[in-house]
Amino acid sequence: MDQDLADPADNGRGIRDLMGLLVLPALWLGKDGRTVLRLMAQAVERLVPLRFSMVEASILPADASDAFIRIGGSDADPEAIAQWRAASAHWPRTASIAASAGEHTSTPIGPMRVIRLELGVSTQGGGAWFGSDAPDFPTFTQLAVLRAAASLAATGLQAARLEYERAEADRLKDQFLAMLGHELRNPLAPIRSGAALWQTQGVTLDQIRRTGAIMERQVQHMTHLVDDLLDVSRLSAGTVALDQALLDLREVVGLAVEQSRSHIDAKRHALLLDLPDAPCTVLGDSKRLVQVVANLLGNAVRYTPPGGRITLSICATATTVGVAVTDTGIGIEPAMLGRIFEWFTQVERSTERADAGLGLGLALARKLAGLHGGTLHATSRGLGHGSRFEVMLPKAQPAADIPPALPAQAAPASPGLKVLVVDDNQDAGITIGMLLEALGHTASVAHHPYAALELAPAFQPDVFLLDIGLPGIDGYELARRLRALPGLGPFRMIALTGFGQDKDQRNAFDAGFDFHCTKPVDIAVLDKIFSGIAAQKALLV
Amino acid sequence: MSRLSLAGTELNYFHVCAFFNSRDEEYAVLSPFFKEAVDQGEKNVHIVNPVHGEDHRRRLGQAGIDVPHCESCGQLDVLEWQQAYLDETGGFNKDKMLATVDHLTGAGRDAGFGRLRIMGDMGWVFTDVPGATDILEYEAEVNDVLSRNKQPAVCVYDIAKLSGAMMMDLLRTHPLTLVGGVVQENPFYTPPREMLEELRARKQA
User: Fold this and answer.
1) Within a 13 Å sphere around the CA of A400, how many CA atoms are in the beta-carbon half?
2) How many other C-beta atoms lie within 10 A of the C-beta of residue A168?
3) Model pTM?
């Protein structure tokens, strides 16, 4: 190699060739990683007399290592590639190596002087082998050219990977937005039809009741979608706090089944429960674990043709206990098994679009299981063979003294309260006011916070029901001013808002609210709060 | 002396290899080069893919060139591949094409125009044209013709069609490159005699 350095003509050609290589990345714009590597291998053949080149790299980060080989200036066919991969299986892959003087490597085309160069700065990027039967291969200049080519190709490969990931994320986002539009429009249709029906002459009480129930279900469905979206945001930001207690998994399963029962029945699935007699204790957040099991159950319901069979069982190891949901549904292709827990990913379906969901359920379930120190895995023998999802959680010490759940007490009917509703959305304010009146309360509605401050002393409300996003001053500030307003009797304040994050709840309590409800509020929840307030008021009287 | 610029760069050599990713990019970069010729009373000869002839004229018009007027007064000749690179049998005859370029840029050059600017769409190289394998020898040898006659020519290549080896060879046969909209003197340029020797050696091998 020292002789190369002393040869000015060779040095000149080397610099010229290196300058030529620098144009190579212009070829790579918009090309995939495999093409980048192939173009590099083709280009260096014009600069260095090679007998073969072999590139081994993961074209995409998640892919297994792939290889392509050029022999004598042409791409090797699959048979030759297999032969070369077998022959090169024992070649070192952990570091850049250069052929030592006189050293040859056995290859399928005979003994060659071979060098290996890293594609990138670590062995994880893959490597490129270049071989020649020239006795002086590689000269100093040749080594410089090959190193430069490998380095440029590594950058091109990385750029191609990033471009693929960007395009894939873009595709998933577009697909998700399309799904979101579809999923939000679906429940809107019966709500609009119901509203139109109510405005027709001759509508019967029975029709109003039936459509009312339909609208209530659709609103619940939409609320569930929005809650899932907010959960994605919270889990991504790491702001989900678990309210942990010792739980019996059998009860978690029971609650999840209760939530999913109407969907299971609608598709005429047979649900088999395989639960042990003894408690299966875990430390967890009941609401979140029910959500995990309900999501798995919902997934099984969705991807199992009508009349299928879903089995829900509790399984345990020495240190873990978990729930397995097995179905006789459409199954999962092996290639999709690793991807179904990614956000917004759905198994492709042709006919079940109407019931597709947002593709969030499994990702949420896995994240929530992870938050509990657990795991969630899927197995399937392929399309048409059903699937099994298993969530496993760390086993907690059995607690003999877990207090039994208190039997639900029927909420006493709440005597009429005076409620001042403040909401700048006139429709929202008026309808909640009408609903409160229908429930036996006296409601007054203000659409501006300053109007509420004026109205309050004369109205003397027992309860303020305040929106948060208000004009002029927000609901928090209005709450503070109402607390400071002279001339008011005892009252309670409820925040009724679209802001549903944990920090929004804290802000509400800091501002003096007694309760925080997220829109759209379940009327049963609101009624329970009012009953409590009414009961306290009765004690004071 | 009138200007001779491409993509904002004054040209000191006369043979440019231009690589483009799309026709939009191609015309965004080359149209000012064509327009400069028209504005300075020079002649343009464009050798285009026959399927793009009308689109070529439309794009020149969009660049502010009065195509019908320039064609009628001889300031613009739009030739199809068969009228220049390819002979009557549909093949590429290197020596005949070199003679044509020599005639166009030398003795046969229309004296009414101050300069001749040639643009050649080289897409035919990637079809099954007989003789297309002689393209590198042609590209090497035409340097002497253009330098001697001091008339510029831009060879246009679609990057999507190039192999790595082809790009390296093309770079070695052009003293100027236009990549990513930027003209650069090409340090990789290999003197024609040396390049022709290597090409002959390759053929013998």
Assistant:
1) 0
2) 11
3) 0.65
Q: What is the mean pLDDT of residues A519-528?
A: 83
Residues 6 or more apart in contact with residue A357 via CB below 8 angstroms:
A179, A183, A298, A302, A346
Q: From the CA of A354, how many Å to the nearest CA of chain B? A: 41
Helix axes A33-45, A140-198, angle to 10 degrees: 160
Per residue of chain B (205 residues), what is the pLDDT tens digit? 688 999 888 988 899 999 999 999 999 999 999 999 999 999 999 999 999 999 999 999 999 999 999 999 999 999 999 999 999 899 999 999 999 999 999 988 877 899 999 999 999 999 999 999 999 999 999 999 999 999 999 999 999 999 999 999 999 999 999 998 999 999 899 999 999 999 999 888 7
The residue of chain A with its CA nearest to that of B181 is: A26
Which range marks the domain in which residue B68 is found? Answer: 11-204
Chain centre to alpha carbon of residue A419: 40
- Residues A229 and A290: their CA atoms lie apart, in Å, by 17
Name chain B contacts of A38, Cβ cutoff 8 Å.
164
Residue-wise pLDDT for A61-100, tens only, equals 767 778 889 999 999 999 999 999 999 988 887 766 666 6
Cβ contact, residue pair B21, A23, below 8 Å: no
CB contact under 8 A, A42 and B163: yes
Cβ-defined contact of A29 to B169 (cutoff 8 Å): no
What ipTM score was computed for the predicted complex, to two decimals?
0.85
State the CATH number of the domain containing residue B64: 3.40.50.300
Domains of chain A: 2-166 (3.30.450.40), 171-237 (1.10.287), 244-394 (3.30.565.10), 418-540 (3.40.50.2300)
How remote is the C-alpha of B72 from its chain's centroid? 22
Picking from B113, B127, B122, the residue whose alpha carbon sits closest to that of residue B43 is B113
Query: Does B148 reside within a domain?
Result: yes
Whether residues B159 and A47 touch (CB distance < 8 A) is answered with no
At A217, is the pLDDT very low, low, confident or very high (cuts 50, 70, 90)?
confident
A17 touches chain B (CB under 8 A): yes
CB A149 within 8 A of CB A43: yes
Residues A296-313 have pLDDT tens digits of 999 999 999 999 999 999
What are the residues whose beta carbons fall under 8 Å from the beta carbon of B180, sequence distance 6 or more?
Answer: A26
Q: Give the Å distances, CA to CA, from B49 to A211, A511, B6, B121, B204.
A: 67, 74, 22, 7, 33
Q: State the pLDDT confidence band at A405, using cuts at 50, 70 and 90.
A: very low
A128 to chain B, any CB pair closer than 8 A? The answer is no
Q: Is A479 left (phi over 0), alpha (psi -120 to 50) or beta?
A: alpha
Task: Determine the residue among B185, B188, B190 to mutate to test chain A binding: the one whose Cβ has the most chain A Cβ atoms within 10 Å.
Answer: B188
Which letter does DSSP use for residue B123 in this model? G
Domain count, chain B: 1
Count, residues in chain A = 541
Pairing of strands B116-121, B43-48: parallel
User: Is B4 contained in some domain?
Assistant: no
Report yes or no: A49 at the B interface, CB cutoff 8 Å. Answer: no
Bridge partners of A492, per DSSP, are A463
| A330 within 8 A of A349, measured Cβ to Cβ | yes
Domain annotation covers residue B1: no
The verdict on whether omega for the bond into residue A520 sits within 30 degrees of 0, i.e. cis, is yes
Walk across the sheet containing A442-446 and list its strands.
A442-446, A418-422, A463-466, A492-497, A515-518
In a domain, B94, yes or no: yes
> What 3-state DSSP class applies to A101?
coil
Distance CA B47, CA B67 (A): 15
